[in-house]
TrEMBL record:
It is an enzyme of class 7 (translocase). NDH-1 shuttles electrons from NADH, via FMN and iron-sulfur (Fe-S) centers, to quinones in the respiratory chain. Couples the redox reaction to proton translocation (for every two electrons transferred, four hydrogen ions are translocated across the cytoplasmic membrane), and thus conserves the redox energy in a proton gradient. Its EC number is 7.1.1.-. PANTHER family: NADH-QUINONE OXIDOREDUCTASE SUBUNIT J, NADH-UBIQUINONE OXIDOREDUCTASE CHAIN 6. It comes from Mycobacterium xenopi 4042. GO terms for molecular function: NADH dehydrogenase (ubiquinone) activity; quinone binding. GO terms for cellular component: plasma membrane. The keyword Acetylation does not apply. It is a multi-pass membrane protein. Pfam families: Oxidored_q3. This is NADH-quinone oxidoreductase subunit J.
Length: 225
C-alpha cells in the first residue's frame, strides 16, 4: 500500500487492509466492530476517498524533493519502531490469552462495547473525537487558497470594460459584418463589376464562372476583387 506509485492503487490496498482487520475483529468475538469496519470505513469513507481521487485526477509524476530535511530517514525509523511495538503487542496477547473477554460480552457485544466506551474509556473517546475534528478543520484551512488581491466589484469591472472604448459591447456577428477569412470568400469571375440584379452573384459580378480554376478569383466584401 505504501510503496504503490498510484494513489488509487494505494486506496484499494487500504480497502483490503480494512477488510482483513474486520476479519480479525470477527475472530475475536467482536461482530459489531467487524461489521462497522466493513460498512463504515471500507464502504463509505474509503469509497469517498476513491471518488475524490477519480474526480480531481492524480498526477503520477509527483516530485521526490524532500520538503523537510531527513524526513525519509525519520519515516523509516518511525515505521520500524511502530512495527516492532505492534509485533510485541500481538505476541503478548497471543501468549497470555484474552483477559476479561467473556465478562465484557456477557450482555452482548454491542452492550459491552458501549459500556466500555462511555465509562472506562470516555475521555479517550472524547479526545479522539476532538482530534478528528481538528484534523478536518486543518485540512480545510490548508486546502483553502488565500486571495492575494481584493476581489473586484461589478462596478469596477464595468468601468474597466467601458473606459478604453473600442468594443465594450459584443463583436458584430458574421451576418452583419461578412468575414474576410480565405475559407469563406465567394468565388467570382475575373470580370468587371456590373449592376446588381437577381441573376448576379453577391459581389456584383456575373454569377456564371468558367470551370477553369485559373480564371476564378476570390470575392472580397463590397464588390472589390
Amino acid at each position: 500500500m505504501v510503496m504503490a506509485a498510484n494513489a488509487v492503487y494505494s486506496a484499494m490496498f487500504l480497502a483490503m487492509t480494512m477488510i482483513i482487520l474486520a476479519v480479525f475483529y470477527l475472530t475475536q468475538d467482536a461482530p459489531f466492530l467487524g461489521v462497522v469496519q466493513i460498512v463504515v470505513y471500507t464502504g463509505a469513507v474509503l469509497m469517498l476517498f476513491l471518488f475524490v481521487l477519480m474526480l480531481i485526477g492524480v498526477d503520477t509524476a509527483e516530485s521526490l524533493k524532500e520538503t523537510l530535511r531527513g524526513q525519509r530517514i525519520a519515516a523509516v525509523v518511525a515505521g520500524v519502531g511502530f512495527g516492532s511495538a505492534l509485533i510485541a503487542g500481538i505476541g503478548s496477547v497471543t501468549t497470555t490469552g484474552f483477559a476479561g473477554l467473556t465478562q465484557a460480552n456477557a450482555g452482548g457485544n454491542v452492550e459491552g462495547l458501549a459500556t466500555l466506551i462511555f465509562s472506562r474509556y470516555l475521555w479517550a473517546f472524547e479526545l479522539t473525537s476532538a482530534l478528528l475534528i481538528t484534523a478536518a478543520v486543518g485540512a480545510m484551512v490548508l486546502a483553502q487558497r488565500q486571495r492575494l488581491e481584493q476581489r473586484k466589484t461589478q462596478r469596477e469591472l464595468a468601468i474597466e470594460r467601458f473606459r478604453p472604448g473600442g468594443h465594450p459591447t459584443p463583436q458584430p456577428n458574421p451576418a452583419s459584418t461578412p468575414t474576410t477569412t480565405p475559407s469563406t470568400y465567394w468565388p467570382c469571375c475575373l470580370t468587371a463589376p456590373t449592376p446588381r440584379n437577381p441573376s448576379q452573384g453577391a459581389c456584383g459580378h456575373v454569377a456564371s464562372c468558367h470551370a477553369d480554376a485559373t480564371v476564378l478569383r476570390t470575392c472580397h466584401p463590397h464588390g472589390h476583387i
